[in-house]
Every structure is written in structure tokens, then in C-alpha cells.
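Name: tRNA (guanine-N(7)-)-methyltransferase
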Amino acid sequence: MSDTTERAIRTFHPRRGRMSNRHADAFAELWPELGLTVVDGDRRPLDLRELFGRDAPRVLEIGFGMGESTAAMAAADPGRDYLGIEVHTPGIGNLLALVRERSLTNVRVAHGDAMELVRRLAPGSLDAVHAFFPDPWPKARHHKRRLIQPAHVAPLRERLRPGGTLHCATDWAHYAAAMAQTLDADPGLANAHGGFAPRPAHRPVTKFEQRGVRAGREIFDLVYRRR
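Structure predicted for tRNA (guanine-N(7)-)-methyltransferase:
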């Protein structure tokens, strides 16, 4: 698949919304220092050491929503750096507000297409990739927009260090099965649990997860390691 085709097929709905005063204040204060705008077609390598100002294991959080989980994991895991990417601007504002309120130094925030960002990262530069409750795109004609598909999994896996983890979660059973099939088929990945993973204690409960549980849907975690 060409880069042109990949850019044309989005894995997300462009989402805009009105920021609260709290979000807007945090954005105005912190975005110049902690923010990164991802531009389509930009292939300049992204220096993560320069971005974070230190050498540390790094986690890429794809689609962090309102950022509560990212902030909680970063606060509990100060030895790793968290780079979160989202397209929902109020969510970006909320994460920046949480970063300010909790005095977090190991979080950076990107706005734009996650796969465009991934292509700028060096192979083996990530300790983990998290994709918690990505859009399931349930209609068959939209499956090509799903994040977890072979064309995307290969570059995600390449950015992981050997032994690094790709951790996905979803509350859509059909998407969970499709994820497992796709990840099992990648020769560079190994299922860390031989099937769906038990819910890791370090993954905070997200609003999407709570919504799924209230609707009676089962939650599926998938954890794979780079060989």
C-alpha cells in the first residue's frame, strides 16, 4: 500500500469541540513546551530524546481520549516517558490540565494522525504501544479504517524494541477476534498470554470501558511482544 493511499484512509473521525476555560488555559500554557502537531506527509525523524529531554523507555498512547488513563499511568510509572496522540482537542486540553495539576514531567502530547507520527519514529525506539478502545468501525465497509490491521501493525511492531509490547483493548467482540487474527499472523509478534490477556492492573478503567461494561459488553485485552 502506498503512503498516498494510507494517508487517504483515516483510522479516525476528525473531532473538534469547545474547550472549557480549564482546558484552554492548560493548552495555552503547556502546548508550546509539551505539544507536537503531526503534519501529514512529514517524514522528518522525530528525536524522542530531544522531545523528552532525557533517555528513558517510551510508551506511545494512541487515541488517549480525555487523557485520564494516560495521566494515571504516567504518574504511576515515572521511569518511562509517555507520548500520547489524539485528534479530539478537548481531550488534549484535558490531558494537559492533568499534566499541570499533577506536575507530570514524563508526558508529551501530539495532535494528528497516529500512523503519520509512527512513521517519524526510529525502529526500536518504543518500549510499548497502547491502543485502548480504538474506534471499532463496526460496519464491514469501514473495516479498512481500523487501526489494528496488517498495514498498520507492521510499522507499529517495527518501532518496538525487541521484547517491547503492543497492548490493545476493546469492548467489541468481533473487533477483538479480528485483532487477534491480525496480530497472530504477524511473524514478528508473539502472544504474551496464548490468547486474550487477563486485565492488567496497570491499565486504568477508561470511560469507554465503563460505557461498554454498562452496555453488557465483555472487555478484551490483547498483549503481544516483539520477538
